[in-house]
Write a sequence for this structure.
């Protein structure tokens, strides 16, 4: 049995290792990655699944974006499940947890780039993404969305852009000050 919980700081390194295993370094070339770069996931919308031994078995994150001007939404991804746990419903469990939490927080829509055959069971389709586009190359037929609130994507058009909080980076002066204190 697995447990799905909010991601913690301690999960970041194992999460990256899991993503490397499942998706490889090609994940860094995707248009969705351009929307995540330098940003934090949406608050309380990053989840991990743990196996019985406590190790990371799966992950999913949601990110704040805008679906064109004035249309707030979330971007889902990446969703990954360790090969040992695949085909047992863990990916579906992570999806339902993420979507339910987003709905409970009052978010109106979730967008992703993925396989329609997999994601349609969660309500995703390309029905309202025809006038939207991603930064960089992507397969248009794989741009999918689900409305958590009816009409949330009505009239959505334009570039999907990141709106989430930025990852804070220390300045060079701050890094040097830390190193100076260490050597003193």
């Amino acid at each position: 049995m697995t447990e799905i919980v909010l991601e913690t700081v301690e999960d970041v390194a194992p999460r990256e290792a899991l993503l490397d295993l499942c998706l490889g370094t090609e994940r860094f070339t995707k248009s969705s990655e351009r929307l995540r770069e330098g940003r934090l996931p949406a608050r309380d919308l990053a989840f991990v699944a743990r196996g019985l031994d406590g190790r990371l078995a799966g992950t999913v994150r949601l990110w704040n974006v805008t679906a064109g001007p004035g249309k707030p939404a979330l971007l889902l991804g990446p969703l990954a499940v360790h090969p040992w746990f695949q085909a047992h419903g863990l990916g579906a469990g992570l999806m339902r947890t993420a979507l339910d939490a987003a709905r409970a927080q009052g978010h109106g829509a979730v967008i992703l780039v993925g396989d329609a055959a997999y994601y349609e069971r969660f309500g995703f389709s390309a029905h309202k993404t025809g006038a939207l586009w991603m930064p960089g190359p992507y397969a248009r037929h794989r741009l999918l969305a689900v409305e958590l609130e009816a009409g949330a994507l009505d009239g959505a058009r334009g570039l999907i852009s990141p709106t989430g909080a930025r990852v804070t980076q220390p300045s060079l002066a701050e890094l040097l000050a830390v190193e100076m204190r260490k050597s003193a």
